[in-house]
Amino acid sequence: MGAPKASEVPAIRRPRRRSVARAPATGRVTFMPLAGARAPPHPLRYAIMEIFDYDNILLLPRKCRVDSRSECDTSVEFGGRRFTLPVVPANMKTVIDEPISEMLADSGHFYVMHRFDLDSVAYAHRMRDKGLFVSLSSGVKAADFAVIDRLAADGVGADYITIDIAHGHADSVRRAIDHIKQRLPQAFVIAGNVATPEAVIDLENWGADATKVGVGPGKVCITKLKTGFGTGGWQLSALKWCARVATKPIIADGGIRHHGDIAKSVRFGAAMVMVGSLFAGHEESPGATVEVDGRLYKEYYGSASDFNKGEYKHVEGKRILEPIKGRLAETLREMREDVQSSISYAGGRVLADLKKVNYVILGGENAGEHLFM
Questions:
Q1: Residue 112: closest CA among 192, 186, 32
Q2: Rounded distance between C-alpha atoms, residue 114 and residue 142, angstroms
Q3: pLDDT digit string (tens) for 345-362?
Q4: pLDDT digits (tens, 9 = 90+) for 51-109
Q5: Cβ–Cβ under 8 Å, residues 95 and 328
Q6: Per-residue confidence at 30, pLDDT binned at 50, 70, 90?
Q7: Under 8 Å between Cβ of 213 and 192
Q8: How confident is the model at residue 320 (pLDDT cuts 50, 70, 90)?
Q9: How many other CB atoms are found less than 10 A from the CB of residue 7?
Q10: Rounded distance, CA 84 to CA 267, Å?
């Protein structure tokens, strides 16, 4: 049987040649041979993926169904609890500390406490004593396993544990998930960070309750420069790609520069959005305060930076200064109002209505050319 005519497959562009097309993050179609297969001549045998990032996407409004944006519900269920916003501050030393985690938990927001220079077991006891839920970070080394053992032995446990390493599609993460599930079976395990559908499938099969997607797209990440790998410049596409195969929640981690990017993340499959730079630089932020030309800044650096590691070894992060932008509570209020507005533009009443809108890809060959469901 001969190959069908082009008119018979109108939904798919035929590639001009059999090789993989290289495309910048401007909305062009990239044709990728399916994993493990030789590149065939027929376009139906190609996996097709749109390459874009947050700045390349605009969501399309639908008829508003509320009288006031304040009617829109921004809350999200995650790991058996309902939180005020689908947003979590990055688990970094210059973004979150114990007082901030207490404030977040007490006000109905999700948090993940970092794991650096911290006695996680003592911290968990203090949070329990205050009647607050416990959300911790963990690595994959023997010392991290020992912390899990202590949490179990002391009976303090943890409600959420985030296995947080730079390359989360790894056998070491599988072993860490197994250990946590054996010692703290009630804990909700988040694992990452990953960049591909294959990784999401593996982590879910290994027992992760949620996966964290994003390799190097953050403002203080330099992974793509140091290694040539990552989702920097196409993080939103990576999220869409991964969400298509996910059967459990996904946290979109990195690349968020504006409040509107939260709505875009939800539209493309995120249950929760991890934010670093937008939460750094507040008056109560734990980063050091620095004055430059009469203006105050907060220090903000990546977890894989030499500033966090204490040595220049396998560095994939950098340090920047964020202008101090007031109190964190005010940013959370504004963020909630902006997400409410996003829901109203989507013609919705609840957060999930953001998933129903169409979008346009701006720039490049597709400028003004395509609408997408």
A1: 192
A2: 18
A3: 999 999 999 999 999 999
A4: 899 999 999 999 999 999 999 999 999 999 999 999 999 999 889 999 999 999 999 99
A5: no
A6: very low
A7: yes
A8: low
A9: 6
A10: 18
Q: Is the pLDDT of residue 334 over 90?
A: yes
Task: Please tell me whether residue 12 adopts helix, strand or coil conformation.
Answer: coil
Q: How far is CA 43 from CA 5, 11, 20, 237, 371, in A?
A: 11, 11, 12, 21, 21
The one-letter code for the residue type at 164 is D
Handedness of CA 248, 34, 50, 279 (dihedral sign): positive
Q: Which residues pair with 275 in a beta bridge?
A: 89
d(CA 309, CA 14): 48
Structure tokens at 110: 């999700």
Distance between CA atoms of residues 211 and 251, nearest Å: 6
Other C-beta atoms closer than 10 Å to the C-beta of 34 total 11
Residue 76 CA from chain centroid, whole number = 15
Q: 72 an active-site residue?
A: no
Strands of 359-361's sheet, edge to edge? 57-59, 359-361, 371-372
- Comparing CA positions, the residue from 282, 283, 290, 284 lying closest to residue 319 is 290
CB contact set of 31 (below 8 Å; sequence gap of 6+) = 15, 20, 21, 43, 46, 47, 48
Q: Active site residue: 64, 72, 221, 242, which one?
A: 221
